[in-house]
Structures are given as structure tokens and as C-alpha cells.
Amino acid sequence: MSGTTRQGGSPASGKAAESGSGGSTSSAAGRERARVLPGPAGRRLTVLSGPSGVGKSTVVAELRRAHPEVWLSVSVTTRKPRPGETHGVEYFFADDEEFDRLVASGELLEWAEFAGNRYGTPRGPVLEKLAAGVPAVLEIDLQGARQVRATMPEALLVFLAPPTWEELEKRLRGRGTEPEDVIERRLAAGRVEMAAEREFDLTLVNTSVQDVCHRLIALMADAPEASRPGRSPS
Ligand code: 5GP
């Protein structure tokens, strides 16, 4: 089954999201997988956002596995590591003091507080990769995506949506990594994120991790303007 694509429109434009323009992605999968990402079109920054529990980390891990040519930013967070998480791989884990220092010195491209912890994208590595022509992906929350849109309007903003709200709740509870009060905070944040879907250039529905990865790779390889028809000037 393919992931569904919806092209976005900004809320200001009043344009409704259209369904199904992504069509079947699996037939194009081999071609997209084989594609290298050279040249100016591949230099774009891609932001992957969406509610907690939707599967962004799984998508990013699959992207890292299948497409090592794509660079994924490693964020800094004040959240404590979950079992299995390694400093410098999933995140750079920092204390509040260190995070304050990074904010004060302007070393973060964007940062946000999410469900009681702070998260931020180190600026230097992103700019270096983009300058070197390496396609770069940020996996960040809505507040961060809005900051990136404001400072780097050429970035492609992709919203990862769950097939249904019930499915999102099930995934968030099912992973068993957070206590109930944290799950509630994440679900509350998730409702806000879902309401902001139309601020993104397009939506990918996470029905299949592989399909979402194929679509992301195809989007990164596309000419920037070809993949963002619904975007209105901001
Ligand atoms: P988690 O604690 O589940 O790893 O992440 C919680 C939320 O923080 C997720 O929505 C994730 O996308 C977001 N996040 C991770 N890194 C960053 C970052 O650098 N900046 C922002 N704004 N959000 C981030």
C-alpha cells in the first residue's frame, strides 16, 4: 500500500489540501532509489515534521539506512536518553546550562520547547552541508518548522501524518517509552500539530515507511519548484 500525498496550501491562501496526487509510489521506487542526488536541486533543505508518535524517527532511520547520501541533522536536546539512544547518534544530549549557552551564542538554527524538554538544530553543520551541495533533512517539531520557514523560505516543509488519529494514539502508547502524563502532553501537542498541516508544502501519510522514504527521496531529487505547486507566497 502506498503512502498518500497531499499537496499543501498555506492557511492564508485558504487553499484546501488536495488528496492523492502522489498516487502509487511503489512502481517508481526502484528508479527513485537508484537516483543519486547531485546538483542544485539536491541542495535543498527538507524539513520533516508531524505529531509525536507518527513515525518520523523510523522514517529517518530508514532514510539513513537506504540513502546514506542524504545527511540527517542531529539535534541537541535536554530530554534524557531513552534506552538504546546514543549521544551523537539520535541526539546530542545536553543539560539546561549547555542548551542556554547554545541559544545565547546563536549556535542553533531553530529551537523549541516540546512536552517539557528543549530541542534545537545546530546551525553550523546544516549550513556546511547545504554549501557542499549535500541534501539535508531536519526532523523537528511544528514550532521549529515555522522558524525554518521564516529564515530559510527555500526549504521544503513536509508534514508526516498518521493514517488516523486513533492510530497515532495507539503508536504513542504502544512504544511504551513515556509515562501517561507525558503521553497526554504529546497528544495535546499532536492536536496542535495536526491543525497546522496546511502550513506545510505537502503531506505524506505514514501508511508505509518505505513509501514515505521513496517519496522524500523523489522530492529531494525534483526541481524545487516542481514539487511545491500549492505554496503561496508567505
Ligand atoms: P522525541 O522526544 O520524541 O525524540 O522528540 C519530540 C519532538 O521533538 C518530536 O516532534 C521531534 O520531531 C522534535 N524535535 C527533535 N529534534 C528537534 C529539533 O532540533 N528542533 C525542534 N524544534 N524539534 C525537534
Automatic annotation (TrEMBL):
Top-level taxon = Bacteria
Q: Which residues bind ATP?
A: 50-57
Using the record's annotation, list all stretches that form the Guanylate kinase-like domain: 43-221
E.C. no: 2.7.4.8
Question: Low complexity: which segments have biased composition?
Answer: 8-29
Q: Where is this region: Disordered?
A: 1-50
- Where does the UniProt annotation locate this protein? Cytoplasm
Extract the InterPro entries matched here.
Answer: GK/Ca_channel_bsu, Guanylate_kin-like_dom, Guanylate_kinase, P-loop_NTPase
Main location, first listed in the record: cytoplasm
GO MF annotation: an example: GMP kinase activity
Keyword terms: ATP-binding, Cytoplasm, Kinase, Nucleotide-binding, Transferase
Q: Does the keyword Cytoplasm apply?
A: yes
Question: Does Cell cycle show up as a keyword for this record?
Answer: no
> What is the reaction catalyzed?
GMP + ATP = GDP + ADP
What broad class of enzyme is this?
transferase
Q: Summarize the protein's role.
A: Essential for recycling GMP and indirectly, cGMP.
What is the protein's name according to its record? Guanylate kinase
Protein encoded by which gene? gmk
